[in-house]
Structures are given as C-alpha cells and as structure tokens.
Amino acid sequence: MTATRDGETSKDLKAEWPFPVAAALGSRVRAQGIERELRARLAFPDRKHLAVEDGRIVLRFEADQEERLSAASRVVETVLAGVDALAVLPREVDDILTILPRERLKWLKDGRLQSAGTRTVKLRGRAKAVTFHVFDPRQIEDVLDRDLPALWRIEDAEALKEKRARAAGKAALARGGKAEPKAAKPAKASRSRDPKPRLREWDAFDAEGFLR
Fold first, then answer.
1. Which residue, of 11, 12, 47, 72, has the greatest Cβ tally within 10 A?
2. With 0-12 CB in 10 A as exposed, 13-18 as middle and 19+ as buried, what is 72?
3. Is 186 helix (H, G, I), strand (E, B) or coil?
4. What is the mean pLDDT, run by run of 10 residues, along the chain of 212 residues?
5. In whole angstroms, how far apart are CA 193 and each of 157, 188, 189, 199?
C-alpha cells in the first residue's frame, strides 16, 4: 500500500494497491466480483471512498479522516491477502471458462466440476433467499489451463450419440415385436361322439329284428 496526499486536492488522503489481475483469471466478471468483495468488507460509509481505476485499487478520504483511511486500508489489505482463495461465483465460472449455465449445472451434477460449498444471499426485490454453489479458484484455474470444457463437450456429444442409438435400437425391436403374427390358439378338442346314434327305444327296435 502507498498512502499519499492526493494531487487533485492537497487536503485529501489517498491509499492505493495494484489490482490482483492474476486472481481475476482473465475474467472481467471475476474482477468485478473482487471489487464487490472489497466494498462488502468495508464499513458502509467507507464504501463510496473505494475505486478501481487504471489497474489500481484506490481509497480516498479527506485530510481529517486519517483513522478511517487506516481502518479501511487494513480491510483492503486483508481481502487482498486472501484473494487467491476467494470463492468463485457461478457467473464468474461461466465467464472464466466460457461455458453456459446449463453446462456448469450438468458438470457440477456429474462431479466434473466440484462444489466448494454453498452460499445463501437475499437478493434485492426477492422475498426468498437464494442458495447457490461456489467453487475453488484453484480447481477453476486447473480446468481453464487444461481446456477441460472442450474435452467435456466432446464426451457429452459422444454420450448423447450412444444414448440416441440405444433408443433407436429399442424402438426398432418394439416395432418388430408388434409386426410378428400372434401364435394361433390351439383348437379345442371336439366332443367325442358315439358312432352309433342312440335313438329313443333303439334297443327294442333292434331286438325285433326288423333290420335283419
């Protein structure tokens, strides 16, 4: 940190630090997230005194506010000391890796992206709080360096192709099963009949010998 009199007005005090570009992982969204984190850690009245400009983090206070400048400076230095481990938010992951939200959710679900925990916040204008996963910057940096999203997209495309092939095969088998003629039911056995019909009083008629 460097603390000096602001050249714009000789009465003002200024402290500044180089912005941690490496921690942003090449992402404008991540850089904005680091700036928001700095502001969120400051006391509410001091947030308006922080600015990020020309690759620098700057605090400006009036000359009689040296104690406030010192307190705010300690907060900024604390955040910068741990900025490399600052959790990566979902929107930041999407921007760093150049992926879609649905891809992030899919890869998180199947374990290719690993959650570093969850965070719950209440957004302005919403009655209910929102809970979301955050990510370890070291893992996100590793995924970025190895260009894993490109490999995962290839794997997903191949898996989808296989899934569609299996579905088509099952559909073909189902259609073939319906086309086969049903087996004929076995005919019911015909009732056995007496070769000599038994007419009424036939025995008496036969005994008289009329047929001889």
1. 72
2. buried
3. coil
4. 58 93 96 96 96 95 94 97 96 98 97 96 81 96 97 96 89 75 59 55 53 48
5. 72, 15, 12, 14
